[in-house]
Design a protein that fits this description.
The chain has 18 helices and five strands. It is an alpha/beta fold and 386 residues long. α4 packs antiparallel against α8, α5 crosses α6 and α11 crosses α12.
């Protein structure tokens, strides 16, 4: 069987590829721009872990291609090394080394010398996690606890405020995970990230395309109190269903100010089952802890009026296809996929087990809380209202 020729892309094409990847285009969409198969695009993106390589540039004092052509022409004229150096305003030793590296006076070729110099200059700098193996072990330990790179970086900055040797950026952690050539963190640690992908994705990318229907008598999110919008007052919640396999789901609730999460076991995904579970759950909490609930346009909340009558809690609905209007809940559902991957049978989890998962998430530091934990913030509010 004849092997297909390898597809090459120009630097301009690669730049366009990375631009579209950052904007959130899929690999298939990018491949269609070049009228090529998606595998050729995936090879380039995955080799870099989905992270755009830094643009290379020559050192200010390095010989340019134009200077190398001048060296080649001068050699053809029989000029000495000192004469060539004088013409280029360079040290004779610079010209001498250039010739020694590239075949001497008889074999020197400007284009070949320039290409070899560019190749030799590709020396990746050792990242901090390779140089500091103790720090790498600390980072790996936190990753195994399902801490995100951003949480780890913030925690290190807080704990080692006076020792920068034990501080590392979240971007460096991501790069060490996705670019295995760095050799700092094992690839197996990827499975502990909230989204265990093989390469990094743009924030603009989303695979959420669920269809939504109209809800009778839905109160728009635009009518939600301003205190809920700006997170000034605790007690305003966001909710959604997290689906496992085809026949199982749980309700997820996130308090907007503290990001405190609660998980609710439901008997089904129909409106009656979901509303009954939420009513039962809400009645366990003081009224001060529940002021409003924001949901998307899923049919599971078609019975929202019955929920409001039973709990005195107003339900507000996001605009169609605007999941970012419940940003805290969307983010939390991403975190929960570490514990409940797609296709998991969620009906096998008791309420006690769901509470344990919620507790673990609530005890993780959050950047948006200045690296306090949701549990700390929520319990401060509970104590102030007690």
């Amino acid at each position: 069987m004849k092997q297909r020729p390898r597809i090459y892309y120009s630097e301009t094409q690669k730049a366009l590829m990375w631009d579209r990847w950052r904007k959130g285009d899929t690999i298939h969409e990018i491949a269609r721009l070049f009228d090529r198969g998606h595998s050729s695009v995936q090879r380039i993106l995955s080799d870099a872990g989905g992270i755009r390589p830094a643009q290379r540039h020559r050192a200010a004092r390095a010989l340019t291609f134009a200077e190398r052509e001048e060296i080649s022409r001068s050699l053809a004229l029989g000029l000495s090394i000192r004469a060539i150096a004088s013409r280029l305003n360079r040290a004779p030793s610079t010209i001498s080394r250039e010739l020694e590296r590239n075949g001497g006076r008889q074999s020197y070729r400007a284009s070949q010398a320039d290409a070899l110099a560019w190749e030799r200059a590709c020396r990746p700098k050792l990242c901090k996690l390779v140089r500091n193996r103790v720090l790498a072990r600390v980072v790996a330990g936190k990753l195994r606890l399902q801490w995100s790179p951003e949480q780890i970086a913030g925690w290190l900055k807080h704990v080692y405020a006076v020792n920068k040797d034990y501080q590392v950026s979240h971007e460096a952690i991501y790069r060490s995970l996705y670019i295995q050539a760095r050799g700092a963190l094992k690839k197996e640690l990827l499975e502990h990230l909230r989204r265990s992908r093989v390469m990094r994705r743009s924030r603009q990318y989303t695979m959420k395309t669920e269809g939504r229907t109209n809800i009778a008598d839905a109160v728009s999110i635009s009518e939600r109190p301003a205190t809920a919008e700006d997170r000034a007052i605790p007690g305003h919640w966001e909710g959604d269903l997290l689906f496992g396999d085809a026949n199982s789901q749980i309700a997820t609730l996130v308090e907007r100010q503290s990001r405190f999460v609660m998980l609710v076991k439901t008997a089904g995904k129909d409106s009656e089952a979901v509303v009954n579970a939420l009513i039962k759950h809400v009645r366990k909490l003081p009224q001060e802890l529940y002021k409003s609930l924001t949901w998307d346009r899923g049919t599971e909340m078609a019975g929202h009026k019955r929920f409001t009558v039973a709990t005195n809690i107003q339900v507000y609905f996001c605009d169609p296809q605007h999941p970012w209007q419940r940003g805290s809940n969307e983010n939390m559902n991403g975190l929960l996929r570490q514990y409940f991957p797609k296709g998991t049978n969620l009906s096998a989890y008791s309420q006690a087990k769901l509470n344990a998962v919620a507790r673990r998430l609530n005890e993780r530091p959050r950047k948006t809380l200045n690296f306090d934990t949701p549990a700390e913030r929520f319990h401060q509010y509970v104590a102030s209202t007690g």
